[in-house]
Amino acid sequence: MSVDLKHKNPTKQNSPLKSPLSKSNKKITKTPSPKKNAKISLIKYLVSPPKTETKAKTPSKTESKSHNEKQNFKPALPKKKLIQNLIQLEQDVVNEDTSKKISPKKRTKSQLSPIKDFYYRPPSNTVFDLQEYLDDLDVRQIDEDMNDNEYKFLKKQILQCKRAVVVTGAGISVASGIPDFRSQEGIFKKIKEKTNSENNNISMTTGKDMFDFNFIYSSPKTLSLFNDMVFDLHKKIKNTQNTAFHGFIDTLAKKKKLKRCYTQNIDGFESRLDNLTIKHPIGLKKKDWPNVIQLHGSINHLHCIKCRNVFNVEDKHFLGQINRKNGSDSLDYFLENDDTVRISDLLPDCPECAEAEDIRKIAGKRSQGVGKLRSNIILYNEEHPESEGIGRVVESDILTNSDLLIICGTTLKIPGVKRIVKEFSKSIESKKKENGEGGAIIWLGNEIPSQSIVDYVEHIDLVVLGDCQKFAEMTAKWFE
Ligand SMILES: [Zn+2]
């Protein structure tokens, strides 16, 4: 997605984009293979910047189908049919288990977990209504009562996977009190209302403007509003707990089942958990890659626009904002009465650059200037500074044959993320077997995916409809 990326033509020997696969093929073939070129274009395509969506949209053919979307889902079997199937199924399991249980005193692992001998794959896009099952049951007691095929399928996929990929969005953090961006109560709407109600001569058409590079850096006043928003959100995140679903991802990592979590969230809750890691910049070497990739940057970090060094956010970086919160109007006064103020006046100096500058001064060398620190949140209409690193990770993860894809808490509105999901889905689909072995693609959320997403992703096995936190509580029981 970055300009650099677009202009870089990988060469045979020293391309920074060379993948592990191309490395292993080096001895076999010297000429760049079409595969390699395909991979490069994939990187470009996968990590496209979150661009402002076009406002006027005529409904596409797929979108116009949306009122029919529920009909296109195959709901879980009606109870009667389900029971018939289950009787047969349970019979098989019972017969098999009984025969095995007769003689040996030490039972094998597979006998201890009958789910392992369960073979079933639901028809594509089957909806499993988690809430319906959980409503009347205590989460801690449900396990053995739940004989539903979809339930067993889900359990088996999660317990058996070895290289799970989890793609998350704001929905997984809402339970901690962090609002999402796009819903009725979301951040975009709140920001628009707040900003337009203030007497500051700034009018927003959408709250998304507050995450738009061109808007934020258009004036000191708009940058100050952005800093205000970041300050508030950062403080809120600092004072809240991660959710049960973050714990679920951590458990996958602990059990050596997590290949990678790709999150659109900037809150960084994952870094508080023992088995999850976040890193900025991601780096180009495989050994440096964290197991959580923040696709849209981080609210907890700043980077220098000159030397690119990354720093943890500290209160001192928001001095202007802190003064405002403490009742001082010095920043507002400054912004409204001093038209010589520049955008750079609102950005802290980079300590690394400052130190280097001091050394140059002592050595009598020419000044090279000190860079400014800006938020590490990736904005609309800016080049993604880590597109190359993220592209490499995605490419490598696809090649390692993931066996479970969980998409949770997102409506997949961002094209780059949608594309990542499609690529993993395609890769898993090619290994899937009808009997349920070989992996699965699970959609988890309070709402079924839109028809256009279903058509785009193509291969969703199970739509788990319900609260992802309840899902996490349920799976925690499985791992006990
Ligand atoms: Zn710097």
From TrEMBL:
SUPFAM superfamilies, A to Z: DHS-like NAD/FAD-binding domain
Disordered: annotated segments: 1-77
Keyword vocabulary terms for this entry: Metal-binding, NAD, Repressor, Transferase, Zinc
Entry's Gene Ontology molecular function annotations: histone deacetylase activity, NAD-dependent; metal ion binding; NAD+ binding
Active-site residues from the entry: 296 (proton acceptor)
Residue numbers binding Zn(2+): 304, 307, 350, 353
Record-level GO cellular component terms: mating-type region heterochromatin; nucleus
Gene Ontology BP annotations: negative regulation of transcription by RNA polymerase II; pericentric heterochromatin formation; regulation of DNA repair; replication-born double-strand break repair via sister chromatid exchange
Record domain Deacetylase sirtuin-type: where: 144-480
Keyword Zinc (UniProt): yes
InterPro entries tied to this protein: DHS-like_NAD/FAD-binding_dom, NAD-dep_sirtuin_deacylases, Sirtuin, Sirtuin_cat_small_dom_sf, Ssirtuin_cat_dom
Compositionally biased spans, kind Low complexity: 14-23
UniProt cross-references to Pfam families, sorted A to Z: SIR2
Annotated Basic and acidic residues bias: 52-72
Family to which the UniProt record says this protein belongs: Belongs to the sirtuin family. Class I subfamily.
Name by which UniProt lists this protein: Deacetylase sirtuin-type domain-containing protein
Species for this entry: Hanseniaspora guilliermondii
